[in-house]
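mind reviewing both lines:
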Amino acid sequence: MAQAGEIHPLINEGIDRKALSTLRKRFVALNQTRLRRVLQALPTRQYNVLQLIPLLFDVNYHLLPGFVSRTTPYGLAGYEAETAALQSAQALTRSYQYRRHPAGFVPQILGLYLMGSGGTIAQSEQSDLDIWVCHQPDLPPHALAELASKCQLITDWAATQGCEAHFHLVNPASFSRGDRDNALGVEDCGSTQHYLLLDEFYRTAILLGGRYPLWWLVPDYEEEGYASYTERLLSKRFIREHESLDLGHVAGIPAGEFVGAGLWQLYKGIDSPYKSVLKLLLTEVYSSEHPQVRCLSLEFKAAVYHGQLDPDELDPYVMLYRRIERYLLSRNETERLELVRRCLYIKANVRLSKRSGLLDWKRNLMEKLVREWHWGPRQLQQMDSRQQWRIREVSTERRQLVNELTHSYRLLSHFGRSQGVINQVTSRDLSLLGRRLYAAFERKAGKIEFINPGISPDLSEDLLTLSQAEPAEEGQTYWSLYQGSLTAHELTDHIPLKRSRRLMELLAWGHRNGLIDNATRFALYPGDSALSEFELSNLILSLQQQFPLPLPALTETALSRASEPCQVLLLVNIGLDPLPGASQKNLHLISSHTDALGYSGLRDNLILSIDQISLNSWNELLVTHYQGQEACMQALCDYLNQGREHNRLPDLQVRCFCRNRSSSIAERVEGLFREAARHLLASPPERFLVQVQNGYRVLEWRDEQISMLELDDRDALLRHLGRSRARHSKLALDAYALQGQDLALILQHDQPGRIQLFYRIKPQWQVEISLLDERGALWSHQQSYRDEQTMLLPLLRFLNGIRLRRQVKESLEHSQWEGDIQLYAILPAQDGNPLRLEAKPLPRAGLSPDFYPVQAIAEPGGKRSFNVTIFCDHREFSELEHGPRLYTEVAKHILSQRQSQEAYPCYITDLDLSAIDPGERMQTAQYLRYRQQLEGALNEAMGALR
């Protein structure tokens, strides 16, 4: 079938029916050759399935696969069952007897076509059967539904025979007009690809039964006038209409189809690059020729008309390669051409480095191509050992594949925009594809690079060596991963597979890329770290449990949103011993202070480092390292801010395998993260207080994110708690913060809009008074007292005055105060009772206005100071009159009014700050601080006069 005479029909000069018959026979002969090659490559059970499929659509027998009902469309045009098909049918059901259709029967199935790689050099045992079922155009909806059910039943039956078959219903009339469902083919990405799909159909489809394509009989040079040419062929009865099937032409491929086809091939190529590179390059070739594209199907048809009938050269994949080869050679892109050759060789799956006694047509064809490429035995051996490629070979191959995919993406985007064919649909597809490429291949800090996108089936290593390198002068230590089991002296003679400053980056990289699995064994040289083999094996086990491979498939829904963390694994103190002194002495410290953030009487922070490994919704694996005394709190802030940003927290797991207190450390970190999230991400959000060693950390919302305030000691904490706030924000306490202290009880009792007063009796007639105001600000003061009944009266009088002053400025319905001041006594832990609060009634006596009033009015002064006027029983004392002796003169007056000579403090009973705070926004704690400052000055003056 190598060469035959050229046929060049010209319809205007008349067409020889014998020439048309010869052309049809040429196509049919090539079709039979390819069908024979398909069947030769199939195992017995799949062979029987393919033989039987045409018969299953020709008949509607209730015991054969695919039977739905008596009314299901059936009958395959022009089909005559062969002996092999009948034998297969009778093997399924002995009662079946084949009968021809009666005269006048109208078949409902016009043609069955096998699409794809079947019968080509690319066919493999894994190739599925993609079959187009072309039916009568006028089938009603219920008949189409039953035909679809029949196809599904045959698919299910084929699966039981180890054969993957897919059927696609095609209405030839609507398809030839370009109207079709986008779900027609698995090679469709959602953007319309009519002509390119038809191009692939005409060059790869194998007729299994039914009508032949009318396209066969239209010369390539008449493709532009396909409609008129076929109309004349049929109207002048050069061919019989009931023998042919019109699916349309492939002239004038729109630019938008190249974008749509490229999008889908790129999308698939991210996971299986070898399968997509060839088709991507063909799309590039076509787009470079636009608008004068001569597609491969037309080259195939022209070759048949010219009598060039060598089935090897007309193999669809060989033709595809030849076209790409011409294109790349013209551009002098030899490196890309070598990649294409490797892709074709891998696709053919013929191992030429190994001798075979079989006279296989695929082997002969591949040997011919390899000779053209000048590949030597060494290169063939390397290609044939791809199943055993290790990480270095895969990394090299990946670079070229990633370059090709990203090149195609840029070319696709540029072509689409230059041709003005980026519509709303393709724009979205391009954006999704860009995100998928970014997620798969983009490098960024902390991201674990995935280097094996379908290149090698197994990269696992039986033996690996892990070593911490000795730092150079003022350099930083780093870890290295080597292939095999090496001694310490051999390390310098080998190049590591990978280096990293952080151990977990190496281990996560090895896990993500499949180098490390359950069977991998390590030679460990930990350097100056405390990493043990026990800890190393548990770290790897944690990775495998939290991020099992393969990762879940990346969905379009996930890509359409911003990436967000889904799973987080925190590994604490990797290679570190938090209590090295105790370890060296083989001691176990026992202390009532068991908090990992403040352990023992020394308040040691046992959390020295945290490695966070997170998997996000785009399947990116990221490693973040936190080091030092603030490692835990920094990791906590980042974790909470991720939850805040995405309105959901990722699944959290915490592990620790260090030598001392590992379980309690892990439990402490996990509990802290969950408790902080509960409060800070609540509605409304709360502040959160954590004690670290002898200092404190307050986590709160600030500028739309959660930030941390560091407070060095208790005094700094008290100053912070006393600050004014624009609105009430509850402060929640970590379980270990302020343990056993009065302050913890006070803060936990905070209520918005209420003033709460707490006191604790101390030795030597001292009392400590604390107040939480309406916005949660804290004020504390220690003073002497004579008896419990009167010690709070001056303060309560002052608070009552503030209350009255505020109420007169508001309507009765909107009074700011919701109730009386709440009073509590703090009782110490004794007699088996814990530290606790006891509610006390407010003293009613002594709050009436029949006492000596001392009122102060403050007004703004210069240099951030204020001017004070004091009224004692309505007598005015001002700085204008007394200058710097104001407090001395007031003290003299007060002392002169006292009947007894007993020394006791003077109290401000009322304070007006309306000039400083015209909007009355000051809260109670601020009033108390101003009062405290004025009282201090007055009492100091009184002391000087005594």
